Queue: 4 jobs
Job 1
Amino acid sequence: MPTVDESVSQAIDVFHLPSGVDVSDYEIYEVATSDGVKRLRYPRLDGPKVTSLAKQLADVRNRTLAAMSVNDILDIVADAAQLWADPDFELRRQAELLIPAITGYEPDMVRIELKRYMRQFRRRELLRFLDSEIGQPSMLDEFRPNKAGGYSKYVGPALTYQVFSSNVPGIPVWSIAMTLLVKGAILGKSSFSEPVMPAFFARSIAMVNSDLADAIAGSMEGRLAAARGFSHRCGRCRDCLRFFADYQIDCGQSRRVQALSRLRSKSRVGVHWPRGFAS
């Protein structure tokens, strides 16, 4: 029987926090996989800790992320995605083991879909997407001549609060990548139904560039927004969203989306309804 310390040391982290964040209190839950029972770990974060975390993310965005060129960010995201092309990449192997056990999807389908999905984040694919959506990606870096005869620059939200998808493993990867490309920091809340990909992709970004990864924070549902879970009735949740997040993205159940939309905050809210794995 392992001790508590041994259980923690053997656990797989399904969260990502910026460097310098001090966390000493964790929760562990077990998942039965094809390779035996695995212990997954995530931190307990109360309201004040989340407030401090949001301030840190906004500061990192203003000091570091905003000064990076979109090409540099694109290269980092593409290099992180390229790590997943290796079948022996440790995070990919863990994802292929954990996602079927947590979601109930067939292992072969998860393996094939992960390989296919991560190809969307190759450099040429990201460039093609930016060109089709905004025309001039360089307008994310500087003012450029516009068709009206003046000059324009695109400015994304400084901090985005994201409730990650619980039924489609790849969607959080897309949300993270697109938010970073518009130079926005990310405060994300994962679901027990699929906590793996948001954390693992953020960790793969950290392997390529720790500065960019410091603009990302994500942890399990029920612990990030407030000590007792996310609730539109929780003052700490309202305060965190109202004062720090410029934009909110929710991929989840209709009741949760409606609760989030009722919050009176400075944030705009983007809603993504549940979809199937291969949608």
Job 2
Amino acid sequence: MRRRVIGTWGCLVALLSLWCVAESAWESTGVLVLDISRSMQDNDPRNIRNDGEQTFIDFLNSVEGNHLGVVFFGAKARVMQPVTAIRRETLKSLKDSLPPIDSRAQRTEIGLGMAKGVEILEGRGGTRYLVVMSDGELDRSGRAAQRWSRDDELALRELRALYPKLRQENILVFTIALTEYSRKALAGGAEPQPNAPIQMTSGELLLKEIAESTNGKFYRILRQRDYLDAFLDIFLQVRPPTLYTLPRQADGRFYLNQFDAEAVVIGPRDMRLVTPRGQRF
């Protein structure tokens, strides 16, 4: 029995050592894909997309190995910020270099924005993902709000044609809906009850479809806190796994950071945990 226990601990130590090596080489590359169509003047009048850029960069800056690019899309898609390493020493210059968001585009080509994001992710290793911020109102014809046209149908088919490639290349797509609901919530309006059913807009349904079809996640902004929670959750989805080695001595130590929700500690039955303040568990 003693040999079996020692052997088990040896396997665990070996596995954790390999995990340490893997974690040291960890990296992620993401692209913020931001809607600049004219409908965003109504659905994001406070330009929360710009604040979202700053907030997400701050989250990424807390862990080494993150890279981020920015794409704007309307009638066309443009790379506004090439994929750049997020580093403390260049953080301010990166934020200052982000272009202003001006929502004047006459059309909404979500598929073009996502395709451009995929393009600049090519050749990148590690975790890869897109964060799409939009109202989801796909509009190639420029008049979809009044009448859905064949051009809009074609744009939708082209968008859906991206799903297999995204799944095959394991590129996650996170979508954040900026609609009349988010506009009211972020303006300090009355918040809905926690379990109150709120009908989804057609744009939200499309954004939800995009996320679910690419193994990503869809976020609705119905309350003020939902906005920050969305970016925090995305960060937690793409950050490296937190690893703590097995304590090998009586005073073995491990550390948690502010984003850790839980920790799994493997040790003997009589193990005791002591916090820096002397609390014992």
Job 3
Amino acid sequence: MCGIVGVGSFVMQGLYSSDLETFKQLLWMDALRGMDGTGAFRVAKDGSIEYRKIAGNPVDFLRAGGGGKKNKKSIEDWLLAAVTQNDKILIGHNRLASVGAKTTDNAHPFMRGHITLVHNGRIENVIALTKQCKKEPTYEVDSDGLACLLSEFNPVDVLHEIRGAFALVWWDLKKKTLNLYRNKERPLSFFYSEGFKQYIFCSEAPMLEWMLKRTNRQSPFAKEVEPYNLVSINLEGDVVNKVKIKEPVLVSPVIHQQHWCGEDEYVGYENCEQYRDWE
């Protein structure tokens, strides 16, 4: 279990200081869903991306200082720049490690090509799928492998093929769209306000509803992102694409649960490949 949070603005001025405070408070609350890694990425008004991440909880993240040529600013100052530079979107992630060491590299987000991704859940057939890449990527975390797939293949085709539990949020630099997608195994709640010219989302609806009431937003009721519906939002806050992905038929969940060893391999059968995709 991991957690995803985000705020977006579709006004010319971009994010306000109140949006940044909302984001930080959501990130703190979301630590209940994972404290092994914390990260965030900013989407500028031109669609470009910056990200920071650490192996640690949100308190450690927000206290982290700058260092090196690439990250001279502290993370607190880096986040503040999202307001002063009129950024449009802030996305955060709290990791509960399931696969891969508890390192900064394995924290979210993952950037591969034009895709920057955060993920809650587990992609169980990612190794089989990434073997189809032109050059098979090296990765330790399934989410990183998924980012590779989304950067190389049509996302609709990838979403049709993946199996497991997932709520996904990614930025597509080529199309300049924020994309949200989940299946029934993982939650993702969304609030869209024409009045405030903004949207807010996070993994848990009660968390989001509490934040909306606390900050006096209109209509303090969050909606779940509909399972198996890919929603794409542009920098102006318009839903520019909504694609229904066919829900997979899982034929052997009991066998899968009994023989899943937790390291992207099935054990206990001579021909385990037949169970890899549950089809």
Job 4
Amino acid sequence: MPDDISATVNEAVSETASIWQALGSSIPVEKILAAVLVLALCLLARRYLLMAFDRILRRMPRVAPELHSILRTVMRFLLLFLAVMIALNIIGVPISSFLAVFSVMGLALSLAVQGVLKNFAGGLIILASKPFTLGDYIESETVAGTVEEISLLYTRLTTPDGRAVYMPNDTLYSSRMINYTYSGTRRMELSIGVSYDNTPEQVRAAALEAVASLEGILSEPAPAVHLDSYGDSAIQYLIHAWVPATDYATLRFALNERIYDAFRRHGVEITYPHLNVHL
């Protein structure tokens, strides 16, 4: 396959060179002047088209600034390529030869950098669809962390223990991903085992007192305490409280301490697995 592509490229280049040699001594001055004039007009029109393209992009708030720049660069080169092709056609150069060279070279290049192109496409999809933005805490199938940088080829995450992880965009957008900060709030869920000697009313009062004493926990949705299940040595309770997503870890650790203090004041026993042996 690579040999076939190389042979095709060489053939197209040779044909293009022979055409240039044939035209070198037979292009009328009038055609050259006409081509230069048309090229100048095309470049002027290109400038106004790019300005209109910028205005259209600015009216699309979901288009990320990074993607805006990329689309404008692509449009600029496409318009320049079109202007050159029009000028070459005026002086009598067969455009098909150039298109053949560019298409074959593009195919060869795409085969050589398949992985890079996949990551590039993934970066465009991420920038366009915005499943996450800078500062969001996300979790993929292999890693979780805060988004610090989104480029065309990779996304850089910082894990809670300070590691920098560079995730290929192809892997990130094509796999399952959870964005914990997308909505701005997050629900904490604490599971605590309490002795059978304590009533649900005691546990609920102590837990809600601990939640109310901690600043930063949201009042809506209201915190709640639920009896979840009956274990061998304890009754399992679930404590639910909504917090700002950015303060989740800090408030979770703080609430654990407040619950411990509140349970001691109310005489609520936090049990552990044990076995009673009767003789």
